[in-house]
């Protein structure tokens, strides 16, 4: 696995560049990402392109032996461009413009802006497509960050109407699909359809779901245009985009299908603070992050690229600036996170960023270097881990043990219609994932319809819409399959299936969900009333051969126990791991990570022969063994 | 009492209608409400009226012996209508449009829309006014739902100016009435007056109160136009509207005065979750609703129709979709709620809805039938209770024992100027009501000025504005009258009375409230400093003959004890009921309802001779006795 | 010290004026503030000025021997004026107008409105500038109240661009100063710059800070124009403005520099409820206010006028109307607050208001009189304290013992970039102040750069931007100086200093803050990692000679102990005061105030010879001694 760093030559005096590049190399970094926010420096005035500085930056970095990932600068169009087409600005759900002054100030549906992006990406790719230092391109930056995947602009409205026309064909078909007879919501023409915001009460969920699909489609289209240009002008280089954590506003599988490599930006401490974790978990793991946050995303994004190629494009190197509270990682965590990415199959971990910028929005975001250029804690750990990685055996291919099914549409369905406060398909998926990880298992997160032959266990945490292909993929499996609540509860048009939930899964599982209720809790409790002749494998858990249906949520010890025994019966090696300890196998290596605040003894024999670390793991400790 | 159901023939294949109608009859239902959201099916294009399907639906239902309540479709104008007059859309307090895409997307003050409503209601009434199956008309649906009674549109502004001109006559009179000299808020002309939104800090409460009165007046006017058309074209049929729970945005007495029957939509579980109840109450009663929610509204709405004629137009039959959490009713609760409506004098209970719709916004709202047409729990209970009702003796007229005074202006006053967070006249009224019900008493909720001769006890929980008529109605009563805090604290123009609170009540009660304070709490604690020579009947409770003034809030055991002894001295039969148990007498019947989660023994002798149930009531149990 | 009252003759029948004036005098009041909301009465139509009533009011008040403070009415322009220039309305951060209907409905940057203010102030000053009854002028009222110091109007945008041009000179300089290279935020011209609202995510903090500075500058300019007019037409009278509590939206030092007297509006109970105090403190002190709220502002605003001249322009006399909860002051608190102002050097305490207005927004705000003109509790206490003040010896000049440094830019910096939720420079300043007061110390709150020679102790709670002047003012001091966290952490352009925090303070204190972290808490915990060779005077507290750096927050017992010992070593007389007790020395008088709910014994000898009160202080009790 390689290490890299995100670097902004335009932020620093040119006289510093060569020394920065030299220090990167000495630290063990081989890759450097640059350029993704530099449009105002590349094109300071309309049509006046300033390549010189970038030519020189690439030269300096290349001369130092660094491999460059060059970003397209489309996440930050300059002010002159925005002023030339003010309608390119996205509108929020309240109808307010989301204007210039930070970043991502554009609507994915605006044709004029798309044209400008084509132009600048083409110009960049023409100039640097064959540059020897460049090994990869990053398209834009963090699509959707700051809730920008969705826009309620006129451009989005017009695009949505056209998308609907293509999808539904006739307005009668759309009215039928959405159930618009309800509340007289029927349209006579696609031109009558509005975006599903600014309604008196909630819009039709079918309307909302199609708008989510459309918005996701626009992101994928936007990306695809850049990919096509880059492929044309820069063949042989990887095209990559950097995804985010716990983010589902577009279909990452669809975008990933157009990429050579999927990458993501890993900020375990900020994600712990900003998401659904309990106050107690936020306290306990404040300097480590929850032990499953990074791993979950590693496994999720590995599944977003057809060949499983993935990177960490931005790795948290110290405190960040954007969470409510911003602790410093426990010493050793930067090393731990790096090795954990390796254990999950990353090709590259790139730290964000080289030197802390003393100015502007992210001035409190740590880098590997302090603002005064002294090595910060992250630099020390990067240097250490670079040496360790070099010394470790090749990790080999990831195992195929447990497949956990997740897709983005599921998240949209539960966002749109949670039915009980706090119900979120993403959260459910994470919690099932975490349960499996506490048993010491290795997981692939796969999209529905993936070929899952060879897995010992399949878990489908929350899959409201089950396509015929998905049902077919599960038919005749020998491995056990565990379905969580709400499986098959909706048709593709966001309706209850005629045969009731779990809809088409009834061909596999002879049961019918005849009523659901949600009770107070954080998240809500979810209880389904099931009609079936099947036996219960536990309270509310129905079994049909190798298929299990868990009709309740949240996951409690009884559910855990059933799943543990299903896994054990499937031949998986389950270990009840101590709090904060996690294992990960890849090839014949076994990694152990201690996210806890206390030292912990590894389960005897779990790691085989130690090639890194020792059987007693300190906090933030890592050990690696070679399986016997 | 009759039973009915809400039905949407336009949601189902026409081939299903006859069987649906037959099953309704077999279930014991005699009434069916239809049509209130069907505008886009009645008039799919401007001026093209499609009556055929509705003709056939009425025929099928009528042939099955069902009595039809036909709704006017004005709560859901079709898209083409909205597009023809976009200014008909209401604006929220922030100035944002509340557009098409759900329901209730209209401003009550828009003349163009009012004209369209006149037209469609006339067309409907002309066609079906004499139809033999039709026994009643419902105007629109749930006026004000989703906060729609108030709009900040230009039409509302112009209407408000005109309404003010008619009310105040001259701008000088308005300036004087509102106290506009304060902060130089004086106007020179009615045309200078804006709506009380988008102000820098709170608007003049007198301005806000007049706007609330105006907005309420617009709702009543809107309804009155429909009533007049329906009366003209369909004489002899009842005209009814369906009100909501815990909703005070317009004066329901004023609207009720134009109706033959008042009805309301009873969703006890959703109301428990969405309103002010404590987390512990929300847990304890999650599957039953708080034991006083349904009864409070029954007694409130019975008082909103001059002759006391009232229905439940929509009765919750299972889990709903619109609360934060949506539990399923305890088995038996649908039956209990139905019998409780009977105990409070309902003529009809109509379940919402026949079959759960698998599509659109309410797809998670249960019906009597499941989406697959199988009887759901509500159907079983409806069938049972239909038979029980048929077997019960006639309930006879409601008793006149305790009168609880409430009006909508009181709610507006405390909304506008709570003075302590959480103070709400509606909540205070509910809490006094609940106190009296825990003593086993029967209550009429009456508007101020109602003839209250013959009541053994009168309670006035929170009546800030006391008119001369109201004071006169209390003068010379022999029954005790209990006033809660804030009585008589405001003039009709939202000012402190010259003689200080309780203003005109000082002619009855020699005391003066010279200072109030509100302290932290949920709701706030409210303490009044009173100047009086009267004795205290308890801490802060002053007595003058048969008149009591409770200068504190919330209700605590000391207040409860005083009121219990006042009631007992007035000859009322007070019983300290166990948790969750409630009694209700009507005619010579006595009903008992167990809202608790445990079985409970009825107080010996409380029910006389049992005609339904037994002395030990299980959860959700009902017993009925004939008083000896 | 003198006493006064706020009076609104326009609210009352003219026949009441003379008696009101007589009663004021009898009560011991010598001053009366009038006129600040009377524009619609002074100029009921454009250009038609109605002076008669005001002539008569001044005559009546003057005849009764009262000294008048006349307010300019610019906080409440009449409707006709707003309608003549609708663009004068401020816009909120969401772009919504903040319109007519309450008060403060204007944008500080609107040239047209500024012209109208010039005109009306000139007309007022011409007419009454030489009036014998008038001793002072109040400009406008509570600048910034209801978040009005900042506006996002077009006028503000244009003003901001011009202000930036004057400050930065060239757009290149601005781009450099703000670090606009980050995220391609570079501008080509000042005309491209927008206000920092409606951005996708947070705007550049440098952009925000300049906008805060500009907005503050506009307030100061607005005030300065009025001051100039008043000085020209009414020489010899004091010009004053009334500031608010816990309010930092503009630089009060800058505005104070243009005033003869600074005044503030003291509402201890409302401020306790509305600000950051814990629920327990809100309960304990609900009827007294936190013991340091009033004193903090007295000491803060005394420092906002170059000669230390200050008044309380509005003193809470009973319950108010504007907090979430509005308790009544404990009997005696109005007297206590009055004497406490005296102890801190006030020249005048003026109660708000004479008689409770029974109408409009503040009808629940107590006055000295009840709405029925009877003396309320405040009147009794005012009468008592007037006599006591007359009997007390002259208080003499305030001591110079402890200087606590605070400036408004610090509050803007932490508002803009708290980095940990709840971090606020104002709150930090208050908490250090409170710590010092619990030790019985006397404090001056001074702006950075003030001459602090002669103080025994200097405390700098939170000063992110340290100018060269400020650093120079601390150089060579013999007194100990204690710096709180974040000192010197930003440059004037909102960047991290090249040498890292504490930036220029490193010339005094050899330490470097190399990392900060914020942890969950309310407020956040703040921990700095420091590189230094210095010894710790306590955990995380570094000492260099007489200079101390406290690298942690919040203040805990260890920090308190260090500061107490620093103060004691500096020769200050520290006493650990019991809960709720506070002392204040001025001249040779020593005041003691009991904010607690229990009686308390004064520390023996603390007061010298008693001239008021006794050694055992009841709740709300005050004692005064003459130091021996
Ligand atoms: Zn808005
Ligand atoms: Zn981001
Ligand atoms: Zn509704």
From TrEMBL, chains A, B, C:
Q: Where is the Glycoside hydrolase family 42 N-terminal domain?
A: 6-391
Binding-site residues for Zn(2+), renumbered to this chain:
107
Q: What class of enzyme is it?
A: hydrolase
Known EC number:
3.2.1.23
GO biological process: one example: galactose metabolic process
| Keywords, ordered alphabetically | Glycosidase, Hydrolase, Metal-binding, Zinc
All residue ranges annotated as the Beta-galactosidase trimerisation domain in the record: 401-521
This chain's protein is named: Beta-galactosidase
The organism encoding this protein is Novosphingobium ginsenosidimutans
